[in-house]
Design a protein that fits this description.
It is a single chain. It is built from twelve helices and five strands. By secondary structure, the chain is mainly alpha-helical. It has a three-stranded mixed β-sheet with strand order 4-3-5. It has a two-stranded antiparallel ribbon with strand order 1-2. The N terminus is likely disordered.
């Protein structure tokens, strides 16, 4: 422990303990996490490649999907490799500043993913409620601007976490009972006042989750109203089918997130700590793993794009 900033005690490094109480099973626990990570990287990178190379997918809906895939693969890469090093090689030590950087990216990309789901709901709203103006409203310039605004929102809301952690004196050791650097896991090692940390974390989760879910709910309320007013049953089915993948992505993202949020704050004494850590890892890893599968299965244009890509590669190999 070394002194920094006058009276504040700042550790040189933290020790990430993995899943306490299950150290002997770390190798076996790592296997499903590693498998999910490989699926997430391959699936999301495959989607990004497909959307960038297939002209029929050069539409706003798929641009947003590519941005979501980029956010997902960045999010899981920010912590899974380090977690696997803990499980496989017992490399538990992480520099204090590196821990701050990891915490920043995990929280920033989590907020970013929520924002992307909101933008994708707005995309479906424009596509179904204003189909004739869809291409003029969601131009490439407009997509870049709203993505950049979502990115800036994520960064600005995450920056205070870094300063709130750096201001704290650490005199309760440097052992973090987690697989990655989390804001409150780090704050709990401080002997200072962490009420502001807890309050800011709670307000950020409620405001971001509440605002994004409100926008998604309003978008789908308007979509349902527009679809119900369609005269043709086939047109109603086609309109709803374009939303099913996105609805699945919303469920995959928000259900584990809220489950993790409420169990962490209200189930602390009844739920074992290692279960909390499992849930925290799954809530970050499930969406990147399942989103490409959901969109690949549910979206006809993506399935057709994959077949075209494979046929093109096969033809080039035969030449």
């Amino acid at each position: 422990m070394g002194e920094a900033n006058g009276s504040s005690l700042t550790p040189r490094c933290f020790i990430l303990n993995g899943i306490p109480g299950l150290e002997a099973a770390h190798i076996w626990i790592s296997l499903p996490f590693c498998f999910m990570y490989v699926l997430a990287v391959v699936g999301n990178c495959g989607l990004i490649y497909l959307i960038s190379h297939e002209e029929t997918l050069h539409r706003p809906m798929y641009y947003f999907l590519a941005l979501l895939s980029f956010t997902d693969v960045s999010g899981c890469t920010s912590f899974v490799p380090n977690m696997l090093c803990i499980f496989w090689f017992s490399l538990k030590e992480i520099d204090f500043n590196a821990c701050l950087v990891q915490m920043f990216f995990i929280h920033m990309l989590t907020i970013m993913e929520s924002g992307m789901l909101m933008l994708m709901a707005l995309d479906r709203y424009v596509a179904i409620c204003y189909p004739l103006r869809y291409s003029t409203i969601l131009t490439n310039t407009a997509i870049i601007k709203i993505w950049f605004a979502t990115f800036i929102r994520s960064v600005l809301l995450t920056i205070p976490f870094t300063f709130l952690i750096k201001r704290l004196p650490y005199c309760r050791g440097n052992l973090i009972q987690h697989t990655y650097c989390d804001h409150m896991s780090m704050a709990k090692l401080s002997c200072g006042n962490v009420k502001i940390n807890a309050l800011y974390g709670l307000l950020t989760a409620i405001l971001i989750g509440g605002f994004d879910i409100l926008c998604i709910s309003i978008s789908y309320t308007m979509i349902i109203r527009a679809v119900v007013n369609l005269s043709s049953a086939d047109a109603r089915h086609k309109a709803f089918s374009t939303c099913t993948s996105h609805i699945c992505a919303i469920v995959i993202t928000y259900v584990p997130a809220f489950f993790n949020f409420f169990t962490h704050r209200f189930g602390g004494r009844t739920i074992p700590h290692h279960v909390h850590i499992f849930i925290a890892n799954l809530y970050l890893l499930l969406p990147p793993t399942l989103n490409p599968i959901v969109y690949g299965v549910k979206t006809k244009q993506i399935r057709e794009g994959v077949m075209k890509l494979f046929c093109r590669e096969k033809e080039s190999l035969n030449l």
